[in-house]
Amino acid sequence: MQAKSEAVRPDLPEIRTSLPGPRARAVIERDHAVLSPSYTRSYPLVAGSAQGAIVEDVDGNRFLDFSAGIAVVSTGHCHPRVVAAIQKQAARLIHMSGTDFYYENMVTLAERLAATLPGPRRVYFGNSGAEANEAAMKLARYATHRTSFIAFLGAFHGRTLGALSLTASKAVQRRGFGPLVPGVYHVPYPDSYRQGDGAGRMSIEAIERLFRTIVPPEEVAAIVVEPVQGEGGYLVPPAGFLADLERIAKAHGILLVFDEVQCGMGRTGKLWAWEHCGVAPDILTTAKGIASGMPLSAMIARADLMQWKPGAQASTFGGNPVTVAAALETLDLLEESLIENAARVGAHMMERLAAWPKRIRSVGDVRGLGLMIGIELVRDRETKERAQDLRDAVVERAFKRGLLVLGAGENAIRLCPPLLVTREQADFAMDVLEEACEAVVA
Ligand SMILES: Cc1ncc(COP(=O)(O)O)c(C=O)c1O
Asked: Fewest Cβ atoms closer than 10 Å to its Cβ: which of 118, 160, 229, 313?
């Protein structure tokens, strides 16, 4: 509760009611009666409005958003320039379908995205991360005339049947939905905290073993990988891992697909996460942060690969002019200052967080790049036993204090605020989390 004498700070949280408040409770009751029970709500936030990194719920409580609508609102909620771009475009042309007709802003966005990767590129637009990955799978098969894929345990690539075949994050996401696309093989994603210095090597050896035992490399169309694993726990692979993957892929004529749906669009302090290691993919998929909350995704592929015929792949809404206008404004904002801010504030956070695994009993590991930071909660720092209950308790405690965070993987907390978050807001979030991580084992 805000003390009366203090000035109101619109950039920080303020909790005025018990949570959930009365209006939130009423919405939740109606929601539970009519919405699909497959949605995974961690705590009862009912958003009413939002600006920047602050979300106000329907009872007037203000929250600091370190989830960004699952790493989506890269420029913050309702950035005035993004809102203006959407309004202007909505008044001119809402829809025409880029599948059957032409309009200029879709071309402009494709040109700008293509220019962010080396070599001539072509762009396909969809509406979600899953759709971009579906398109990548289809293109990889079409271009290579091969059928199999290698993906990683812990990976999340979406829930449509093709993307789900690549996903290996939680059993509940697959249970009851098989058979999935055949020919998808999973190997461990490197986890330096649990596997030590040899983590990258172990994953590469697992692929080499697959080639010797189960799937001949000449049958593999693509290796699909998140350059920083998102839903699996915000895992940053060791230096050299993506280069090793590239080496294996090249040796066997296999395509390298980077899913940058979560780690792309400036989140790691560079536009693309692959830029940290200099290994550019044959195909890159992006969504989430690309249009600050409007539904848009893109698959950016080497031009020589994207040679499929008219009708082979398309979607009525993909590259809708309003979503594209939001994306163009988002790109401007990212390039002007927000990618740099992500690097700067992220480095400040990591400096402070680095001491936690030594100081706080429940914290086993902290890792991240830019504003994509994971905190892993363990029962015992020696055994590294995963502590999902402690993680859930920290998330809940943070919510009660006005900080929105989400879990990732079995026992990690993910920090993925909008890229315009200030150092002061980051300090507030870390104060809340530090207290919560200590309190859950006190
Ligand atoms: C890395 C990654 N790929 C794909 C997806 C799926 O995106 P969407 O939910 O937009 O289909 C996600 C969503 O969390 C993701 O994190």
From this structure: 118
